Amino acid sequence: MVSESAGLPGGVAVSHLRVYDWPAADGLRGGTPHMHLACSEGYVVTAGRGAVQTLTASGYGVTPLAPGTVAWFTPGTIHRLVDEDDLRITVLMQNSGLPEAGDAVLTLPPEYLTDPETYAAATVIPADAPREEQARIVRARRDLALEGYRALREAADGPAALAAFHRSAAALVEPRLAEWRERWLRGARAAAQATGEQLDRLADGDVSYLAEAAVRAEQPSSHGRFGMCGWLDVYALP
């Protein structure tokens, strides 16, 4: 029988997010605009109020967020979370949490997107730095990403500017694609294959696999970690 991932159903991952309340140059409070290249992401709003700004080839949009709202978007959606009143979200991520494990490119100005080393120098948070220094770096990269984001929104040749960002982002993540593929094989693909085999066995009248049922529960493995959009409570799921 195909072995299904021990992670959450369908290879989805989850984290709890409290959106940054740091003000930006435009007077709004919130996180860092960025894009995922191979993953969809969903928001389940649990408290507070705010919005998610989005930018795609179809244009700019704003989706209000309030308790009970479920919003999601596909790869290629540049998104920026805005906090209006202690916005808190449960984030659902495709491919076993890949959006928080590499599948994200911040909308930095083009000169920071030329190669992985230049990009890393502007975005990496040193794990051994004091928390106050980490917060300073996170705010600085947020503000830098907002510069690039505003340029993309205001570009006279909007579609062309967005396409150029897409190409730069793809070049930055190319060295990690083999690693991403392995995560997909172990997670989402394994889960889908397991369902297909279970359906085949049910069709054959074979219910023996139901005796292998299991129950799992986890608490967050870390609290208040600096993320792209806010402070994260994360789970160390397979």
Number of helices: 5
Largest sheet: 8 strands, antiparallel
Intertermini distance = 19 Å
- Secondary-structure-derived class: alpha+beta
How confident overall, as mean pLDDT?
Answer: 95
DSSP strand count: 10
Structure description:
The chain has 238 residues and is of the alpha+beta class. 33% of the residues lie in helices and 28% in strands. It is built from 5 helices and 10 strands. It has helices spanning 94-97, 116-123, 131-154, 158-173, 177-203, and strands at residues 13-19, 29-30, 34-35, 41-56, 59-65, 70-73, 78-93, 105-106, 222-226, 230-234. The strands form 2 sheets. Strands 1, 2, 4, 5, 6, 7, 9 and 10 form an 8-stranded antiparallel sheet that branches. The protein has a two-stranded antiparallel sheet with strand order 3-8. The mean pLDDT is 95.
Gist of the model:
This protein has 238 residues and is of the alpha+beta class.
Q: Topology of this structure?
A:
Blueprint: E1 13-19, E2 29-30, E3 34-35, E4 41-56, E5 59-65, E6 70-73, E7 78-93, H1 94-97, E8 105-106, H2 116-123, H3 131-154, H4 158-173, H5 177-203, E9 222-226, E10 230-234
Antiparallel strand pairs: 1-7, 1-10, 2-7, 3-8, 4-5, 4-6, 4-7, 9-10
Labels describing this entry:
eight-stranded antiparallel β-sheet; 238 residues; 10 strands; 5 helices; alpha+beta
